[in-house]
What we know:
Elements: E1 2-6, E2 16-19, H1 21-32, E3 42-52, H2 56-60, E4 66-67, E5 71-72, E6 75-76, E7 80-85, E8 88-92, H3 113-118, E9 123-126, E10 143-147, H4 161-166, E11 184-193, H5 194-198, H6 203-208, E12 212-215, E13 220-222, H7 233-250, H8 269-272, H9 291-306, H10 320-330
Parallel strand pairs: 4-9
Antiparallel strand pairs: 1-3, 2-10, 3-11, 5-6, 7-8, 9-10, 12-13
Amino acid sequence: MPRGESQASRPASQNVNTGNLAGVLWYLHNEVVERTPRKFGITKIIRLKVQTKATQPLWEKGMNFGVRFAFDAGQATGPFECGRDEYGPKLCQGAFNSSYDVGMHNGSVTGAFEWDTYGYFVGCNVLGHFPFPNYKIYYPDAVWYSLPGPCPSRNYTEWDDQCRERQPGGYCDQTPTGQGNCTWTYEEAGEITIDELTGIRNYTKFLESGRKEYQRWADRGLGWTWWDSKRDELANEWRLMLAEELFDKKYPESTPSKDMPDPKCDFNMRRFYEDKGYYATECHTAQKGERCYKDVIWAKFDGIYKHPEWYKGLTDESTFEEFQAYLYRTSPIGSPCPPPCT
């Protein structure tokens, strides 16, 4: 997972956004090189080798990744669920606000519905889809990710031991277990500078000469052509190819780029925000004659044998209530099974 950084950046680690190489190049093209000097003083693309494991609640929804949060100075800035109506979740940008209505999740340690429900998951989004950007992009298969670390409700300058303890984040220095506080780990895997990628020998002299890397209004540089034609997919594929080749050239001992496929972003917005526990639901153990009872009996005595992959964590020895609870958690909203009384 590459990431754009400045020479003065904190060590790339936790509470940050990353992407695949296409996603990072899109970010550089649209938000960094059009500014003089570059936004945030970004000078390089670092590469991280990241290992992830979904939490059980997220896995039961059929996903390895949750929603991709933006991180600014180490603070998660949304989108957070801030209420619900008959149409579904209402989403708000910015840091989580304690005034948000998150139903039965109000007052939890994490505060946010998302982390309270699924743990500190790694997030992702395919560019061109929710949450941002929601318009056509021209970099092939571009993806962004979010890597939650400790105290994501505050920026770096406000971290303290109590916040770290109450909000540990998902980073762990071992193989991820899928527990809510151990969903990802990483190791650094090299870096390239924007200058060496694009052929700029001295950025200071480049600016002093009056040249510009890219001008949005003109869709080209001034005295420079590397970033020309942002909406040309072939040109963007060429830029992506050059970046991959440069990493491979600088780090010949590493696995070639072509042999390191990007992890598929399988975030599903509809399934992710289906939380029937958002407002507390009255429990009821299914009784004979009810539709839920029939569904549970079929799952326990038939489905578990025909399709064991449908019932992760259950066996033929699991109780009736355990099967009903599983159907309640994993079925669409409006399904006939309420939570069982135990």
